[in-house]
Here is the input.
Amino acid sequence: MKNINILAIETSCDETSVAIVQNGKKVLSNIVSTQIETHKKFGGVVPEIASRKHIESIMQVLTESLEQSKLSLNDINAICVTQGPGLIGSLLVGVNVGKTLSYLLNKPLIATHHIAGHIYSCNIDNEIKYPSIALVVSGGHTELIYIQDELDFKIIGATQDDAVGEAYDKVARQLDLEYPGGPKVDELSNIGENTYILPKAMINSDDFNFSFSGIKSAVINLVHNSKQKKEEIVKENLANSFQTTVVDILELKSRKAIEKFNVKQFLLVGGVAGNSLLRKRLLEMAKQLNIEILIPKMSYCSDNAAMIGAAGYLYYKNKIFTNPLTLNAKSTLNIENIKKATML
Ligand code: KG4
Ligand code: ZN
Here is the structure.
C-alpha cells in the first residue's frame, strides 16, 4: 500500500509546531518551537504576542521539519492544520500557512480539531480500540469524551468553569512559581505533604462534569489570608494538597465513567497528562478496574504537530477535506460532528 505522508501544522496556543507523519503512525519529524521564555515575563500567554511569535517562527519550523523528514513538498499527500479551538490570532497563522501550501501545491487540506489531535496522540505508539473513554486535561480543556468509533466523539462531562491546567497555572502564581506553573507545582508537590484541606466540587453529582474554580479560589484565599496574618504558607504542602485534591477528583470521575460505559480502553491525554501523580494514580486505577490504559509519552502530551498529523491521517482516510480558499480558524469548535463537517 502507498504511504500517506501528512504535513501537519499546530499553532493553537504558544507552541509553533510542524510535523511530517506517515500513515498516521510514523513520525518522520516533529519540530516544536515553544514561546514559554517570552510569556514567562508576563506570567501567562499574551495572545497578541503569541500570534506575532508564530509568524516569526513558522517558516523556520516548517523548513526544519521538512529537512528532518528527508522528504520534499512533492512527497506530501495532504496538508493538515489545527482549525481550533484555541487563540484566534495564533490559529490564524497556522491556518493561513496551511491554506497557502494546499493551494499552491494543489494538495488536499484537512482542518483538524485540536482535541482530536490530543486524543490521537495515543495512536502514534499504540492503537486506540473502540469504544473507549478519554480524559482530556490541558490548559484550556477538562473533558471526559466517549469515543464510539474513529473520529466519533461524544462529550460526557466537562468543566463548568476553569480547566485543570488553568487552575494549576493560577495556583503556581500564588506560590511564586514561573509560567507554565503546572510542571513546577507537580515538582514542588513531590516534596510536600497533604496538610491543607481544599474543596472537592461536584464529586457527589451523578454526572461527569468538573469544577475547578472553587479550589483555585480556596488556594488564593489561603495565601492572601496568611499574608494578612503574617503567617508562613508551607508552599510544598499547599502544592501537594492542591495536586492530591485535583487528582482525587479526576480519578473519581474517570472511575465513574469507566464503570458506567462499557469500554475497551481509557486514554489520558493533554498537557496535564504529563503530571506525575495523575499518571501514577490512573495507571493504578486502570489496573484495579482491569482496563487497558493509554498515556502518550511526554513529548506528545504538550502541544505538538505530530498528534495533529496522527488525527489528520484519519480525516484523510475518511475523506474529510476542506476548502483552502474558504477555511477559517475557529476559537471554539465542536468535536462531536467531525464526520459530518466536510468541506466547511
Ligand atoms: O495541552 P497543553 O500543552 O496546551 C493546551 O492545549 O492547553 O497544556 C498546557 C497545560 C498548562 O496549563 C500546563 O501548566 C499544564 O498543561 N501542565 C501540567 C503539567 N505539565 C503541563 N499541569 C500539571 N502537571 C504537569 N506536570
Ligand atoms: Zn493542547
Summary: The chain is about 40% helix and 20% strand. Residues 114, 118, 138, 270-271, 303 surround zinc ion (ligand 2) (CB under 6 Å).
